[in-house]
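Box S2. Input/output pair 1.
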Amino acid sequence: MTERIVMAYSGGLDTSVAIPWTKERTGKDVIALAIDVGQAGEDMEQVRQRALDCGAVESIVIDAREEFANDYLVPALKANAQYQRRYPIVSALSRPLISKHLARVARELGANSIAHGCTGMGNDQVRFEAAVAALAPELTSIAPIRDLSLTRDVAIEYAEKHKLPIRQSKKSPYSIDQNMWGRAVETGFLEDPWNAPIEDLYEYTQDPTIEREPTEVTITFEQGVPVAIDGVRMNMLDVVLKMNELAGAQGVGRLDMVEDRLVGIKSREIYEAPAAIALIEAHTHLEDLTLERDVARYKRTVEVEWANLVYDGLWFGGLKRSLDAFIDHTQEKVSGEVRMTLHQGRAVVTGRRSAESLYDFSLATYDTGNTFNQDSARGFIDIWSLPSKISARRDKPEL
């Protein structure tokens, strides 16, 4: 019986070329595994057939949209996960899910290897292989694009020569990765960070400069999870899809950034993540209302570490699991409603309310009837500043 390799298949250039390339050089049968994580505009049946047309002996498609929404996007939202404080780790969130199914299918079908179409310059090679190593350490990983230093122009020539059914061409050289949480575009003229992105790059968002009426939306959260939009209850999958529609129509969620890749290089990336950006903004405002000051401050440092760990491919690592436990505990009181205005590329919170609110109007108001005991402030300041006062007597700072 011919040995088998299970390959993570996206339907794009690299994985389409990787199927025949791997088959030629290893002599092993390639089984393509495509995971539906809500990549808009992709017909998964066409993706399945494309893998067979490229030489796969079997092509499997798994609908993992609800799993992705519930088990990966919910934790990311609770963590307000944004790499470098801006990017909502779109691609990094799908990789551990894909890796989990890669390892499972490989075991079920008796394969001894998994494969992916990553280059040696990107983050995904680390994410796939580290995740598989954490889940199924007996499996080996093969990366034909990376291991053969197959550049993009050579891959395109190979695809054209072998008449592989791919969409990329020398006239359209972009590399695109997408799921329901967002869309990433790179390569081509974008590799020069001085070049401005053009409107044709975007699919999830409308041009934010076009004048249109603002959209007002109210999002209901229960323990950190969005459960309703404008009073209509929805599961997480439908919330994300609806917010992509509403925020995307207003051009919310476009990002143009130079990010620090795990492999040590800087990369210029164009992202659009309307639902992610809007929901994270709403969630952070509800946390401002419901979390104690010290918890909120500390959680911000945890959020940075959580996003770094996931970006770096350590979803299944021990530290990430421990941080999940802390974050889940912080969300016990993060329930309520957030009102938001979506308009011309911005998602602006205009109101928030919660039965778990720590906001006390009688303490916060400056009007008559304020219950805050201002006489306590003087003694508090004396004690708070006492260490500074004592050290100043010793050090005699110059003025």
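Box S3. Input/output pair 2.
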Amino acid sequence: MIECSHNPPLLHDYTQLLNHSRVNVKRLMNHEPGLEECELPLVDLYGLWSENEEERVSCASEICKASSEWGFFQIINHGISLELLKRMRKEQVKLFKAPFDQKTAPGLLDNSYRWGNRTATCPKQLSWCEAFHVPLSKICDDTCYGEFNSLREVMQEYAGAMQELAKSLARVLVANMGAPPGVWEDKCTASTCFMRLNRYPPCPVSPDVFGLVPHTDSDFLTILHQDEHVGGLQLMKDSKWVAVKPNPDALVVNIGDLFQAWSNDVYKSVEHKVMVNQEVERHSIAYFLCPSYESFIGCCEEDKSVYRRFTFGEYRTQIQQDVKAFGHKVGLPRFRVSS
């Protein structure tokens, strides 16, 4: 990475961790040469909005099947305009090109700027990225944008569109389990969800460095607008890592831990990661559908549940404790009845 004023001190942090650990980097990163590239299941959401019941049922079935078999799928004809996606990406790039000192300035996007991993103790725990992880409740706060006035309007429009799309997908998944929509609808509002703007700078160290360390998402579901041309997203499929081929026309959806617990393991929250590129940067935007911290996550069939009931706040606290103690998230296994 060329040292310049807008890059975070990732190279410094990586070097410090490498010197401290004195271990082989490729072994740490579980490098797999010749990784298989896959195309995720592609769902055309045109059928979901169709007046034809057979088309609606067929589309819903595709969503649920992909959520059970892959935990990931792509969507086209999702209702979010290409023009809005382009405007949001343009503003995102402009934000990350700002000087590092400006991005870390107090108050910008609710003080949500972060980079790397401040709790990392070895290279395998470092994420070679920078990000703004913004609560939707702050997106309408004009004081959050500082000098980035043009970001405010497009970010509000983008968040609103993603919220509606996420809820439409969630309704399908809930209905498939035979649960009434009211059980879920009140849990996730614009005040409880998040957006994460990501930038993965070029990494001069090695193409085997994590842009984002292996993890599962801790929400109900995530909608990702990833880079249309620069790959890097990988997921665990049939006990091996596969690389996701970018599709410039699609958004990527993945199931989070909460839907896996709520569905009693019918829907799968799949481990995934991002790998860096040595030559070019990569951008993505993730929308996280989350409930309030007080919301209980109980199985839709509680008498058969493999998980005990827990609140989202309890889950988040346990994750933070595990990361601090072990350097990584443990997640749902902590809440299985058998444990």
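Caption for Box S3: The two ends are 44 Å apart (CA to CA). The first strand starts at residue 37 and ends at 38.
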